[in-house]
């Protein structure tokens, strides 16, 4: 089970707000919690803008009454139609999405125009992560190409730099500033061209404390809400609390110094190396040696006292 602690969640929201002078510069990513209740807690603290990664998350936010939801994804094909369905179904929520090429933007424009609707878009910029987005030096031309698409309203620029994870804060800051310089130049070029200053949404958890110091940039951390062992180890300038615990039980002792818990691939993120998937608060000496769909095999020390049925409290490395 995933057990969450509301008091610690509230404290993490309070800590988050200390990094920015105005909550209007916060657009938390809901992908970590995927939770209606957490969305409501954030709104109770004056946060009204959200990011999400899936249509399901966008719908959950609308059901929670979120005023402003950015699908931080470029909807293609059926997903674009599903976004249109959300716009038609939840009129109290203002939706937006990302785009990084004219083909997808044109399709989006076509289906929204046919439905008599409009959609706000942010140009997704590739500032070094090389996952999605258009290079900033090519984005001015894309901005020009988007202007005739009457069902699309270009609201701003989106720059995600999740690849910057240096433990040294000064090094991370230097790399972040270098990458962001191209975003600032693009914004300047668009102001020169149109006289209109686009909004900028930048960064994730590792870099939001850097972007928070920039005037007017909106920050989008997500992991802060529950926190995890991975970011606690790397981001030492961020004092968030563990607020989500993976509770598991020892289900077998197949050998003298081996125990097995029911915390498989389906229960905890498994993209990291085996040794960096979970840390047990009440059993720090247990070391993972095997992981499959429903089992986590752990090496136990000599003469250990772990018993079948015993509860273990795990902090994920990536929650």
Number of helices: 9
- The number of strands is 14
- Average per-residue pLDDT, rounded, comes to 97
Radius of gyration: 22 Å
Identify the quaternary structure here. Answer: single chain
Structural class: alpha/beta
Describe the model.
This protein has 319 residues and is an alpha/beta fold. It is 32% helix and 23% strand. The protein is built from 9 helices and 14 strands. The chain has helices at residues 6-17, 36-44, 55-63, 78-89, 102-114, 136-146, 169-194, 208-211, 229-234; strands spanning 2-4, 49-52, 68-71, 94-99, 119-125, 152-159, 199-202, 218-219, 244-255, 258-261, 278-280, 287-291, 296-299, 311-316. Strands 1, 9, 10, 11, 12, 13 and 14 form a 7-stranded antiparallel sheet that branches. It has a 7-stranded parallel sheet with strand order 2-3-4-5-6-7-8. A hairpin with a 4-residue loop joins β12 and β13. α3 runs parallel beside α4 (78-89). The longest helix is centred in the middle third of the chain and has 26 residues, at 169-194. The radius of gyration is 22 Å and the shape is elongated. The relative contact order is 0.12.
């Amino acid at each position: 089970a995933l057990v969450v602690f509301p008091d610690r969640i509230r404290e993490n929201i309070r800590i988050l707000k200390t990094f920015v002078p105005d909550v209007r510069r916060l657009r938390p990513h809901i992908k970590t919690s995927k939770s209606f209740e957490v969305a409501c807690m954030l709104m109770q603290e004056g946060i009204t803008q959200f990011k999400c990664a899936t249509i399901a998350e966008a719908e959950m936010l609308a059901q929670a009454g979120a005023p402003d939801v950015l699908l931080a994804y470029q909807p293609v094909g059926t997903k674009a139609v599903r976004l249109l369905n959300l716009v038609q179904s939840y009129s109290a929520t203002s939706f937006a999405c990302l785009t990084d090429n004219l083909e997808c933007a044109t399709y989006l424009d076509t289906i929204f125009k046919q439905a008599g609707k409009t959609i706000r878009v942010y140009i997704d910029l590739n500032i070094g992560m090389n996952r999605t987005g258009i290079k900033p030096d090519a984005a001015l031309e894309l901005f020009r190409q988007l202007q005739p698409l009457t069902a699309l309203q270009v609201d701003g620029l989106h720059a995600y730099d999740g690849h910057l994870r240096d433990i040294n804060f000064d090094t991370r800051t230097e790399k972040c500033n270098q990458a962001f310089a191209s975003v600032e130049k693009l914004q300047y070029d668009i102001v020169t061209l149109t006289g209109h200053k686009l909004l900028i949404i930048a960064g994730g958890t590792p870099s939001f404390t850097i972007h928070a110091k920039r005037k007017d940039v909106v920050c989008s951390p997500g992991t802060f809400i529950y926190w995890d062992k991975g970011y606690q180890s790397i981001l030492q300038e961020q004092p968030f609390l563990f607020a989500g615990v993976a509770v598991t039980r020892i289900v077998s002792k197949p050998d003298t110094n081996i125990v097995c818990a029911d915390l498989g691939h389906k229960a905890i993120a498994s993209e990291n190396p085996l040794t960096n998937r979970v840390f047990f608060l009440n059993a720090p000496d247990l070391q993972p040696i095997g992981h499959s769909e429903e089992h986590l095999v752990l090496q136990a020390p000599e003469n250990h006292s772990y018993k079948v049925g015993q509860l273990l409290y795990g902090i994920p490395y990536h929650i």
